[in-house]
Structure formats: structure tokens, C-alpha cells
Amino acid sequence: MKPAPFAYVRPGTLAEAVAALAADPGAKVLAGGQSLVPLLNMRLAAPTALVDINAIPGLDEITAEAGGVRIGALVRHAAVLASPLVRRVQPLLHLALDNVAHATIRNRGTTVGSLVHADAAGEMPVVLRLLGGSLDVVGPDGPRTIPVEELYVGPLESTVRHDEVAVSAFVPGLAAHAGVAFEELARRQGDYALAGVAAVVEGDVVRAGFLSVSDLPTVVDLSGVAAEDMADLALASLDPVGDIHASADYRAQLVRVMTPRVVATAREHARTRTQGGTR
Amino acid sequence: MTEDLHDVRLIVNGVHRELRVPARRLLSDALRHDLGLTGTHVGCEHGVCGACTVLVDGAPVRACLLFAVTLDGHEVTTVEGLTRDDGSLGPVQQAFAECHGLQCGFCTPGFLTTITAGIRANPDPTHEEAREIVAGNLCRCTGYQNIVAAVERAAEIAREDVPGDVPAPASPPQDGQLGVEDRTEDQATTGLGG
Ligand SMILES: Cc1cc2nc3c(=O)[nH]c(=O)nc-3n(C[C@H](O)[C@H](O)[C@H](O)COP(=O)(O)OP(=O)(O)OC[C@H]3O[C@@H](n4cnc5c(N)ncnc54)[C@H](O)[C@@H]3O)c2cc1C
Ligand code: FES
Ligand code: FES
């Protein structure tokens, strides 16, 4: 199908973009379009205007920052995946991105757009939630920083307001002695996951994040929990949903199988890093 | 509501083209309807099948997920642009013919563009890497074996090719001025098919 008609603006500055959004309550930001355009084509969304942010300078950089790495709103998934800086500072971001869509989609889709889109089946929201990062936005009242704990409120619903443009995401780096792991099951590499698990192990602290299981990206503290009890504890905080791709029971089973395995891999990663390696 | 029209300049297969389109015109439709380049096929129109894949500034993208208006000044390569300068089949096209990489041919334009970029980035892919290059494209006929064989064969042909014979990789994008030589309309539309 084809999208319904909309007005199109391509502002050259952030201020103009914010003004264009504020002027039309039906307007939407267009970044990489890899989530928005399918919705428009299927007429599941019909914004009155698209504010294309792709001509705004300064939003396409990945920069090292104290304690982590900052990703600009126009940095494509492909550039984040290829970045040696990202890989060194936060290997979990790299591991997870390798599972985000196919290369062709990653050439266009942005990592920040993925965070704003707030899909619980996406890899980026749960990874940021697990790492405790934040999103910087600019609106009519100026800039503000949204901690990831306050970012996700419902299925496909974030606290970024209609007239705000997300300008960058801050992703904390991995502590020297910590380890990470990521695993998901999809029908083909690059398809949306049927279920996925990310884990961070730092000393005695063990935390795991779950994607595509509940309708919100969910993080569970598994510190001090024996491997055989992890899945039960995690499932107590999760509410597996069934759809045409997998039943709720099957998703619960994937959580049972993957959780202890991913935590064990993260532990092993922490052990190798502690023994002098930097990987 | 009367729709606003936008002037868009594209460099399609090396030729400067100008079109006037509503903002909602998908690149896939701009190519097929406005420019008559029907080699780019449209399957799912939501990013999943890969039939519409074209190269924008040398990188493969889904033409059904891009609005033409957003690409003013950029360079687009479609399947029609993959032939050699003399109009004969390019390396990937030749490999598909040799390996029987197609049956109905509906998915083929998207595979050809994807593989062209894939073997440019990785000129000597392993069998696994060859599979990975086409993992985002769907084919309902072949069962993929011959397509993967064609990826490996295309890489072989491209490696043996006399330098300069292969359709040149797009130069890095620079808004407005793109260092691409003009070709005449005639040459650019040879190989226009189905
Ligand atoms: C076939 C296919 C497979 C995919 N598979 C996966 C997958 O496995 N995992 C996955 O995570 N994703 C997947 N995706 C989605 C992809 O990752 C998208 O790129 C991403 O979700 C959105 O980024 P975008 O830049 O394309 O955003 P857009 O589509 O442009 O925008 C998405 C939404 O976010 C808003 N938005 C975007 N950027 C900003 C901003 N800077 N400020 C304010 N609002 C903004 C838009 O208004 C819109 O509502 C897939 C997509 C396709 C087509
Ligand atoms: S038509 Fe574009 S991906 Fe299917
Ligand atoms: S050859 Fe028929 S869909 Fe691929």
C-alpha cells in the first residue's frame, strides 16, 4: 500500500525542526524511516507532516565521553556496528547490533531512532535499559536528558514528547572487570527475535535484560541466584506474550534455556577480561 | 487536499534526472512510474522481501522505505545500471545466468543489487559469508542454493575482471555535486526490462 498524503519539511537546524513539530500536532520526525515508513505504507500511521531531520548538521557523530560513548541521532546502525570505539568501550552494544535487522536495513536505520521507537522486540531499548544509559532531547523549552529508567512507559511508547527531537544517546562503557553476553533466537539472522537475552556480570552483580518476551524491555536482577533458579526468577517479572511467530509457552521455554547460558557466557567474558585481556 | 509537489534531482545510473513528485512518492515508485525504470520490483512494500533493493550512493537500501524527496542530489543505481558499458551482462548478472540463480525472476533485481554491493565490500567471501550477503532477501522459487553459488561465482568473475571493466563503485556522496560523469539517456536505459 501507499502512504496517505503528508506535508514534508527538511529543516537545516534543530530549532527549525522543533518549531515545525510544535506547529503541527500531527507531525512526526523522520530519521532512517526503517520503522516509520512501513507503518505509513500499511497506513497504520498517517501523520499530517514529516519533519525530516537528516539535513541537520552535527548529529551524525559517535564520540567518546567520560564513562561511555555518545551516539548522535543520525548515526546509522551500520556505523555503530562498524565502530571500533563502540566495540572497545561497550562490547554489548556491538554484540546486540549484529542482531538488529539485515545489513540493508542497518544502512539506513538509526540507533537513536530505534531507542525512540521503543519496540520491546528491538535490541536497542533493552540494551540501554540494562546498561543504564540516557537519551538527550531538545524541545520548545530547551534540552533535557531522559534517564533510560524513565524512557519506556508502554508498548511502542516512550516519554519523548511529540515536539521533541532526540539528539543523542549516552551508552555507559563496560567496567574493567565486568563481562557481557547476548543471545537471541530469530527465524533467520536479522529477523525480529522470538526472544532474546542480554546479560552483564560485574563481581557479584548479575543482571539480565529480555527482549521480545514481554511488551516492555525488562531487566531482572539475578545476583546471587543459582543457575537453575534464574529462569523462574526472571519469569516472575516477565509476562510472555504469544503471537503468530511464537506462543507464550515457547517464549517462556526460550527464557529457561537462554538465561543461564547467557549469564554463564557473560561470567566467562568477565573472567577473560580480568585476566588482563581487554576484550 | 491538493498535494504539494517537490522538485527532486537524482543521478540514476549515472544520468541526471529531474522529477516533480508528492512527498509520499516512494523511491521504488519514482523509479518505476516517474522514470520508467521497471527493473526495480516491488514485493512487500514494508522492507521485508528485498525485491526493491537499490544502491544509494553505493550502499544497498530498500527503495520501498525511502521517499524520493529525501534523496535530492543523491546517486541511485538500479538493476538497469549493473550492465557493463557495452550493454553486456555485469559480473553478478553473468553469474546468475551461469548458475541458474533465478526462476521466475521476481526477486532477482534485489539480489543483483545486494550482491553487487556485497562483493564490493568483501571480494572473496567464504560460503558462509556468501549466504550472509543474501540473508535479507527472499526468493520463493529457487531454494537459494543456486543464488548462493551465484554469489561465489560473481565474486570470482569480478576478481578476474580487468580493472575498470566492472561498474565502478559510487564515489562517496557529496550533496549536490557528485563526481559522476554524465551519460546519455540511451546508454543508461539499455537493459531496461520486465
Ligand atoms: C525488515 C526489517 C527488519 C527489522 N529488524 C529489526 C530487528 O531485528 N531489531 C530491531 O531493533 N529493529 C529492526 N528493524 C527496525 C530498525 O532497527 C529501525 O531502523 C529502527 O527501529 C528505527 O530507526 P529509524 O532511524 O529507521 O527511525 P524512523 O523509522 O525514522 O522512526 C521511528 C520512530 O521514531 C521516531 N524518531 C526517530 N528518530 C527520532 C529522533 N531523533 N527524535 C524524535 N523522534 C524520532 C519517529 O518519529 C518514529 O516514530 C527492522 C526494520 C525492517 C524494515
Ligand atoms: S518491496 Fe521493498 S522490501 Fe519488499
Ligand atoms: S526466482 Fe522467483 S522469487 Fe526468486
TrEMBL record, chain A:
Keywords: FAD, Flavoprotein, Oxidoreductase. InterPro entries: CO_DH_flav_C, CO_DH_flav_C_dom_sf, Diverse_Substr_Oxidored, FAD-bd_PCMH, FAD-bd_PCMH-like_sf, FAD-bd_PCMH_sub1, FAD-bd_PCMH_sub2, Mopterin_DH_FAD-bd. It holds the Pfam family FAD_binding_5. GO terms for molecular function: FAD binding; oxidoreductase activity. Residues 1-176 form the FAD-binding PCMH-type domain. It comes from the Bacteria. Transmembrane segments: none annotated. PANTHER family: XANTHINE DEHYDROGENASE SUBUNIT C-RELATED. This is Carbon monoxide dehydrogenase. It comes from Marmoricola endophyticus.
From TrEMBL, chain B:
Transmembrane segments: none annotated. Residues 6-82 form the 2Fe-2S ferredoxin-type domain. Pfam families: Fer2, Fer2_2. InterPro entries: 2Fe-2S-bd, 2Fe-2S-bd_dom_sf, 2Fe-2S_ferredoxin-like_sf, 2Fe-2S_ferredoxin-type, 2Fe2S_fd_BS, Beta-grasp_dom_sf, Diverse_Oxidoreductases. Residues 160-194 are annotated as: Disordered. Pathway: Alkaloid degradation; nicotine degradation. Gene3D superfamilies: 3.10.20.30, [2Fe-2S]-binding domain (1.10.150.120). This is (2Fe-2S)-binding protein. Keywords: 2Fe-2S, Iron, Iron-sulfur, Metal-binding, Oxidoreductase. It comes from the Bacteria. The lineage of its organism: Bacteria, Bacillati, Actinomycetota, Actinomycetes, Propionibacteriales. GO terms for molecular function: 2 iron, 2 sulfur cluster binding; metal ion binding; oxidoreductase activity.
